[in-house]
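WARN retry 2 of 3 for item q-0093 after timeout on previous attempt; input resubmitted unchanged.
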Amino acid sequence: MKRPSGFPYFHLADSERFRTSLFLGDGLFIWGIACVYTGFAGPGRPQWDTALRLAIGLAGMHAVLLRYSPAWRLARVPAPAGLLAVNGFAAALIATAAKPLGFGGLYQPWLMPLLFAPVQLGLHAIRVRHDEAPLEPLRLALAFAGCVGVTFPLLTTVEVGTGDAYWYANMVADFVTQWRAGIFPVFVGQSIFAFNGTPSPVRLAPYLQHVAGVLDLVTGHILTYPGLLNLILFFSFVGGVFAAYGALVAIEARTRWLALLFALLYIAAPAPLALLYTGNLFMSVCTLPFLPLVMLGVFRSYTGTGHGGFLLLAVGLAATWISHPPIALWCTIAVGVGQIPRFFSWSRPEPRQIRGWLVAGGVFAVLTLFTFVSNLTLPPSGAGVERFLITQSLGDSFTTALLPVSDEAVAPTDHQLGWSLWAALLVGLGGAAALRRKWLVALALGILVILMFVIPVPYLFDAAWKALPQAVVAISFYWPTQRFYLLLSILAVFLGYGVAAGLAARRTWLHAVLAALLLLALYWSGVEASYFVRSGIRRTAAPRLARTAHAPANQILTRYAFNSFPTAPPYFSHGYIDPLWENRVLGSDPTVELASNYATVIGPGSLVRGEGDLGQRDLGSGYYLLLDQLPLPPRRLYSLELQLDHPDLAGTLVGESLNLTRIYDMPESGIGVPLEGKPAGFGSLPTSKKAMSLVNRTAQEDHFQLQFVAQTPPAKSIPTFGRYVLREYDPSALPVKIESWTPYRARVEAPPGAAWLETPRLFLPGYRASVNGAKASVGRSPGGLVMVQIPPGSSRVELTYPGSRLLRLSYGISLLGWIAVAGAGVVLGMRRWKGPGRAAGAAAPDLRSPGAAR
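OK item q-0093 returned
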């Protein structure tokens, strides 16, 4: 038998190697799919042993049928049809035996073919395409299993993370709710989950929420909103590892095992895992599948003969821009600098190159038109970002970021490259200088540019940051390592593979040595990845608490929902804001309030259901019990008004019941956020609301407890805290009765002299309103909110946000562009799979040849 090339070497014929690969790959794929399925459709996060039993059972059944099935050998039965029949039969058998295997009624006979047969059809397609790579199914299965391992905490339908994760789940919920209500396109928040009308992130980075909407349609609306978010993040890692592996194989197909190890290093490095678990920077995670396409575009732009490389580069960059503009900006800078060597190869540009640039530029402009138009038409938000604060944080943290990740994986310096990729980066830089291949030099230049802004080299570091335009500084923000290290990771992977593959193709023993070194590097990355995985498990919300936190009666609009505006409205609070209370009727002078839902709620028209003194039981360490077991009868709406004797006392009010959670900073619960006017959120300041909303929509009586946690334990005892009044109100008796939030519909009872209805939505150009079916004027209230002109008396108001004509036009152009790209990708993919498999390395460029420099 002729010794096959490559490492490792199996003493088997190709057909036997493929069958072995298929069997092992079978088990790994089914194990991974079982983990995903049990996590999202089962009672909670899956157990490894349950998924393992399913994988062993199905893979064993497939191995038997693969060996003895007539369908596999009948010439008249097409291979895909035979596989479908054989594996459908295997799935039905394994489902029948499900209970003895330990997974009971969770796996039904009708579900098993849907779960199992497509995997086998995919593996068959791989076999047809890769005659020269019989172990390809095993490599792909290992890549998928690696993704399951590092993202295992995500395989659940509850939140994984802290405040950012909660906010992202809210934004996904808002977008999906609008799509379900038939609103398309979605430009601002228009549901109870984003009643303030936030345009972020759908106007800044539309990819995340649009994918959530598509997944919600595909899954039949069965997943929770945090579950949808987790599924997107899981698919981002899966797409990242497969895109990286496919791109690396496209660069050099003869070293597939090295490509697999580098692809696994990409997703197991600290940079992407810190984005996921430490910072909960989920838009950044969404760039994982697209960065490898950018790197492949750089390679093909230098080694290709047509426009394909430039087009791939344009599409990859455009996908990165719609996923996360800050990462995309620095990726564009790094890639742009990497194109500089091109100008040293001609006396003047060739017409073919110029056409390639123009076509790629046009494609990029179409695909990103909406993102740029949308960002440019939003108001400037926040104060200017100070450069010296960025350079100070980078300088203070650089040496710490060179250490291993922290045991809890929660430190800011856990956003780092990791020792494995530092080694790949350094070896790659040295190899690029020695080999002098232009695409390797392009990647090396991109790395050096980013390192110039990361490593605090005296004079150079400060000069580099001072030379940046303020817009680039602002988009980089105060902790740019979150962007830089992810880009360094993908650049190190491709640069390291380019050098390693060039060496491995020379000698078999070099291939073996490099594979062994990469296995050690992957082992180290796996050890560090385990810290992040354990951190994700610790930060997973308990199912009951997750349901309570996302219930409408507890929905919190975090400060992130207001970050797209220079200032927040007066009603802003870090705690719960009842959107029903934030509707007012204003006079012809908008600074004059004629009626409001809040004034009605605490006014004489409400029913007093309880009142008395606030307790002052000292629980120690600055904790005081103010109310204990305050009864809340079922299916009622209440306001709890507090008349505090010490309004200046700093601390936190913490209230909870079986179904409610209330947490407010005192004396101002909106502290730290610039407001448009005087504070009107809950608190004890003269202009603050003194009442909090309590709702019991269940059929059972609830009991509310309230504590005060002093910021600093007082030096002497507090004799009294004040009094409370519990009022019940009827929402049908309010002056502004909300009929719908998606879109906003309300019935208004306006007193004489009324001129405007102020809504809780922050003003942006593009709102349209109708009053009693007729078009109405829309304006900006003194509080920065949307107000609609109304007449005195009874009116029915509807408020929508179709956006400006420019915004809608840009959205339509970009949407059609992405549909065309997806269609072209499907057509090219079908042609590729229908074509004959190529011999190993036959069509791949030889990294050692002079032609690779072109």
